[in-house]
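Researcher: Sequence recovery benchmark, item below. Answer with residues only.
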């Protein structure tokens, strides 16, 4: 199995052009012909315009009739191009029949080794960065390998349609796959996040400020959201980098960053990336994942990948702090509940009158995932009303499970607390770890 540590999905770069040509040659020799794949024998004709065309596609410039903006990525492993992805930013009627949002291929010498699944997972993250919660994919009914890759990434099959191309009828299967933004990315309600969490969680800010003071130096916050903690760290004088997948949350944070005094703004760097796949040039003295955000990673594979990324981004002697909310008893259907009002308030800053509700939707005890929905009913000062639903999903860890995972991933647990006042662990409360 390829490891996410060695494989990257990158925006095409000239230094990998020869690798891309190799990939085209291998696929071409195998008889694979795709719209987005170049003819290796005509390399001289396309090599000089390739990167400009990709950039135009991404920006939606000069597109031929019927085309939508698209982003191309290459899967790269130690200098070799293993695969390509074409991510269309939206669908047309024709793409709905055949093509879908994502087209991809892997070079034949790497077929059957898990690269397709890894590449599609990373492509789903790229789709999430565009704010897509769900994508549609298609594959030829005869292509069992492609269907299996889609299934491993969560495909829900829809219909199979006959499509006639060049006088040949092919049967095309169509599926939907949720991207990582389908839950936990606050795509609809990022503008209400701070208002809600000003009250829900406050005590952790002082804890992280104190931790950064003690451990000193540069800080990386994973899943930094709207900067509730990150901005306080920057104000305290720390150079801070924030990573988050959500375009909506990062958008709020960028607005705040623009209003900061120059010296503080210069200390904050923001990167849109998944916390299980980010790759930065810098190394950090302290990496934190506050406010239970680690639980947004819904599989063991992603959790391990995230911890491996953390390890690689720590400076020598660096520290890592993560926090989870353990399950309050065995996970079962009794965790589900009907829509309940949590609070009603008026936001003095915006004049919005907000009713916050929540609903417990499903429990998957085997995968330890609880899905719920936040509901905001918002009335503006002029009386207009909207109801916004925000899906959330969290993977739960008992104390034993999170400790075992941290230790298995090479961390030594130096401190363990039950709350941000550093009180000991006790049932029903959060778990907070400081590791190295
Ligand atoms: C509960 S908020 C926490 C935000 C901030 N750390 C705070 O304490 O207020 C969770 C954050 O995780 C982000 N997120 C969810 N899944 C993610 C992923 N796979 N990679 C990176 N960020 C993710 C969301 O966009 C959201 O901003």
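Model:
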């Amino acid at each position: 199995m390829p490891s996410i540590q060695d494989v990257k999905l990158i925006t095409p770069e000239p230094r990998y052009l020869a690798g891309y040509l190799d990939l085209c040659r291998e696929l071409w020799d195998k008889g694979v012909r795709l719209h987005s794949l170049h003819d290796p024998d005509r390399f001289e004709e396309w090599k000089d315009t390739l990167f400009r065309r990709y950039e135009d596609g991404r920006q939606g410039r000069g597109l031929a009739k019927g085309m939508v903006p698209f982003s191309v990525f290459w899967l790269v492993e130690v200098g070799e191009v293993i695969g390509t992805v074409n991510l269309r930013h939206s669908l047309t009627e024709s793409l709905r029949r055949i093509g879908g949002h994502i087209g991809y291929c892997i070079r034949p010498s790497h077929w059957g080794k898990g690269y397709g699944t890894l590449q599609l997972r990373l492509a789903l993250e790229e789709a999430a960065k565009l704010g897509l919660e769900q994508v549609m994919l298609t594959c030829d009914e005869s292509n069992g390998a492609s269907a299996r890759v889609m299934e491993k990434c969560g495909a829900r099959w829809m219909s199979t349609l006959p499509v006639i191309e060049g006088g040949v009828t092919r049967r095309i299967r169509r599926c939907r796959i949720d991207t990582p933004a389908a839950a936990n990315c606050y795509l609809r309600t990022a503008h209400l996040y701070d208002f809600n969490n000003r009250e829900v969680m406050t005590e952790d800010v002082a804890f992280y400020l104190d931790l950064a003071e003690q451990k000193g130096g540069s800080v990386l916050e994973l899943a930094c959201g709207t900067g509730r903690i990150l901005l306080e760290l920057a104000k305290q004088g720390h150079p801070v980098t924030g990573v988050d997948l959500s375009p909506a949350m990062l958008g709020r944070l960028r607005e705040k960053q623009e209003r900061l005094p120059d010296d503080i703004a210069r200390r904050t760097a923001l990167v849109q990336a998944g916390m299980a796949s980010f790759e930065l040039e810098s190394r950090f003295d302290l990496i934190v994942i506050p406010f239970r955000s680690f639980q947004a990673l819904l599989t063991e594979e992603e959790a391990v990948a995230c911890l491996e990324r953390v390890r690689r981004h720590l400076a020598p002697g660096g520290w890592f702090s993560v926090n989870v909310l353990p399950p309050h008893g065995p996970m079962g259907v009794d965790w589900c509940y009907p829509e309940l009002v949590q609070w009603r308030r008026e936001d003095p800053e915006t004049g919005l009158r907000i009713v916050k509700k929540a609903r417990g939707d499903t429990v998957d005890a085997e995968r330890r995932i609880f899905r719920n929905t936040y509901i905001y009913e918002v009335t503006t000062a002029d009386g207009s009303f909207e109801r916004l639903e925000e899906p959330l999903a969290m993977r739960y860890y008992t104390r034993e499970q999170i400790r075992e995972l941290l230790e298995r991933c090479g961390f030594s647990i130096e401190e363990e607390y039950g709350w941000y006042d550093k009180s000991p662990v006790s049932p029903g409360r959060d778990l907070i770890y400081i590791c190295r």
